[in-house]
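[recover] target loaded
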């Protein structure tokens, strides 16, 4: 099969032919139809994650995976409902099944988790072995190139906004800020409209073209922040919404300077969920967080239940996409474009 592999960190991926993997009895072999390209792929290639755990090469990146079931392992239960030819998406976060997090369904934060695309096999290849319980069957009328990014770009902000909602942070009188309108932010705007109980949604970003995407997908207001102080952003926000601070923020970038700005604009009892990590450190004043009783939610990817909910929204036509399909041979070119923040929406490799 064709595979794009990391043989050495901080080097371009090597595009080569390797053996199609065997599967374990409890796995299915997925023939990859499409795989989204994520900034995490760039971070992986550039060695970022080596600071948090050793991932020895060769590694096949690509974790936004969809395709068809090519083969079903011998002990996969019939109750799984998986047959050859089924269309599936691959759920992230393959847990050990026995820890306290797995027991409540949060397999993606299992201490012994395995993530597709962060090891031997990933979506930048024509086949991937997947534990059957992490292959989620989807409606065949959905397009593969649109399904792929929903497994991360479309899943991660959904979970983050659910956390804010379940904590009481959303409502008709709550102003919601979506910071960073990249691959995740374009979906976050749509979820904020769906889950926000009518609260005004404000998209915040540096790139004007990306802000126009947010406007297209339902943002009530947009604010371009390039070169602006916190006070200037607050004035624009007040002009748009009647208040100069956000009641809830979903941060889809995690860039250090943007987080400092966002925290400075977070209201009393405000909720902040971060799902991005362009940066790796935050430095914000503590006192406003304490006396304002603000809540910070770390939110990582999503579990099977979250993904199934996103797939249901997609099946009902409630999610819009900004997609650029590319070929396998274009992977390294688009990794460079992604690294330079030059992609609008999501680039998706199709096979």
């Amino acid at each position: 099969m064709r595979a794009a592999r990391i043989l050495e960190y901080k080097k371009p991926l090597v595009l080569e032919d390797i053996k199609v993997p065997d599967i374990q009895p409890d796995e299915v072999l997925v023939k990859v139809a499409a795989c989204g390209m994520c900034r995490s792929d760039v971070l992986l290639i550039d060695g970022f994650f080596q600071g948090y755990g050793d991932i020895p090469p060769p590694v096949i990146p690509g974790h936004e995976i969809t395709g068809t079931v090519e083969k079903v392992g011998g002990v996969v239960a019939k109750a799984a409902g998986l047959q050859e030819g089924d269309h599936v998406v691959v759920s992230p976060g393959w847990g050990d099944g026995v820890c306290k997090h797995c027991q409540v369904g949060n397999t993606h934060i299992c201490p012994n988790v395995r993530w597709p695309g962060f090891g031997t096999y990933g979506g930048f290849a024509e086949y991937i072995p997947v534990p059957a319980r992490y292959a989620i069957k989807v409606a065949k009328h959905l397009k593969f190139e649109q399904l792929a990014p929903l497994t991360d770009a479309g899943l991660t902000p959904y979970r983050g906004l659910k956390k804010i909602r379940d904590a009481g942070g959303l409502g008709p009188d709550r102003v919601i800020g979506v910071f960073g309108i990249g691959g995740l932010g374009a979906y976050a705007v749509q979820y904020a409209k769906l889950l926000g109980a009518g609260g005004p949604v404000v998209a915040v970003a540096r790139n004007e073209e990306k802000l126009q995407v947010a406007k297209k997908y339902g943002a009530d207001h947009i604010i371009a922040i390039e070169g602006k102080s916190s006070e200037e952003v607050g004035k624009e926000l007040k002009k748009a919404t009647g208040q100069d601070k956000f009641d809830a923020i979903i941060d889809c970038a995690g860039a250090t300077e943007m987080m400092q700005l966002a925290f400075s604009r977070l209201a009393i009892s405000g909720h902040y969920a971060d799902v991005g990590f362009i940066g790796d450190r935050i430095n914000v004043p503590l006192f406003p967080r304490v006396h304002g009783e603000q809540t910070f939610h770390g939110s990582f990817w999503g579990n099977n239940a979250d993904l199934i909910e996103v797939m249901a929204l997609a099946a009902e036509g409630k999610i819009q996409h900004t997609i650029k399909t590319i070929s396998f041979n274009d992977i390294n070119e688009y990794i460079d474009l992604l690294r330079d923040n030059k992609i609008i929406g999501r680039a998706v490799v199709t096979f």
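[recover] notes: The mean pLDDT is 96.
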